[in-house]
Sequence to fold (122 residues):
Amino acid sequence: MASYTGTCNCGSVTVTLATAPSMIYACHCLNCRRAGGPFSMNYILGEDEVTVHDSKNSRKQYVDTNTTSKATVKRTFCQNCGSPLYSQAEKLAGKYFVKASLFDEITMTKTDIFQDRQIHWI
Ligand SMILES: [Zn+2]
Ligand SMILES: [Zn+2]
Fold:
């Protein structure tokens, strides 16, 4: 299968995966909602499965300590266009929560996280 590449809105940052992941994780926590959308769509992958190209050094990281689980989450986004790129949770070292919204084609199989915070009309 061909590699799977996504990009932020301005195109400064691209994220490439070897193949499209089979499962998407929808996070309904309030902090993901504030970062854009009624929930965030994530592919949870190992560091070795994710290749990030950022030739203009556009990435910025927000260290989020006020999360639902009280665990620190580093949220990386493009400081040029504001697109969320990926998050890394302290509790899941070595894992990337890559934002599936970067990719044109999105995996259909879904698991929900923090569903108690889900907006009722979803
Ligand atoms: Zn951008
Ligand atoms: Zn979340």
